[in-house]
Amino acid sequence: MKRTVLSRIILVSLGLLIVILVISAISAAIRSAGSQPVPINELLVNNNDRAVEMVIRGPIVADEKFKTYSIKISPDERRVTSYNGYSLYENEYKALPNTYKAYDEFIHALNKANLMLGDELPSDLRGTCATGKVYEFKLMKGAKVVKTLWTSTCSGAKGTLKANLNQVYNLFTNQIPDAKKYLK
């Protein structure tokens, strides 16, 4: 009789111990899931290999008349470039030095303007908005594009950019004195 009671006590104790361990494991998993680190906003990473770029492609016209423009801002350089033709022959550019602090203010302004808010979708932009302009906004890490968002002036091709185009455009053009001279 004593042996059956002792066996039952041991079995109940083991059962309770297993239940306590399972509850503890579930509780720990729930706590760790709720406190996972927030993903880094890639736009706000201010390293020397980072840059942001706005590319403006004009209407689809004859090769001799086709124009593309870009403004690329990095921690050490601000550059506006105009290109001729579909092969992107560099026509004219202006390069200016930049500082870490100026770049930091710029990327924070872009962040507050919700530049990276849109969802990037795989998209081939060739032929998009044939009669208007296409605006691409790229986040770069070295030569690699981390994220691209785009929009256009054509009503049927709104793109992935959720930010206000005029606000973001002005932030970029304000980084280059006389930028509009290059964006003719």
Order of strands, main sheet, comes to: 4-3-2-1-5-6
Fraction of residues in helix? 25-40%
Count every beta strand, where a strand is a DSSP E run of 2 or more residues: 6
The biggest beta sheet is recorded as:
6 strands, antiparallel
Number of helices: 4
Quote the average pLDDT.
85
Described by the principal axes of the CA atoms, the overall outline is elongated
Radius of gyration: 27 Å
Indicate the proportion of strand residues: 25-35%
Taking the alpha carbons of the first and last residues, their distance comes to 99 Å
Q: Return the CATH class of the largest domain.
A: Alpha Beta
In total, the number of domains comes to 2
- CATH topology term of the largest domain: Mago nashi protein
Assigned CATH architecture of the largest domain: 2-Layer Sandwich
Write the element-wise H/E pattern from the N-terminal end onward. HEEEEHEEHH
Structural class: alpha+beta
Low-confidence segments, given as residue ranges, are 32-39
Structure description:
This protein has 184 residues and is of the alpha+beta class. It folds into two domains: 1-36; 42-182, 2-Layer Sandwich (Mago nashi protein), CATH 3.30.1560. Helices cover 32% and strands 27% of the residues. It has helices at 2-34, 100-112, 165-173, 179-182; strands at residues 50-57, 67-73, 77-84, 89-97, 134-141, 144-152. The protein has a six-stranded antiparallel beta sheet with strand order 4-3-2-1-5-6, covered by helices on one side. It is elongated, with a radius of gyration of 27 Å. The N and C termini lie far apart (99 Å).
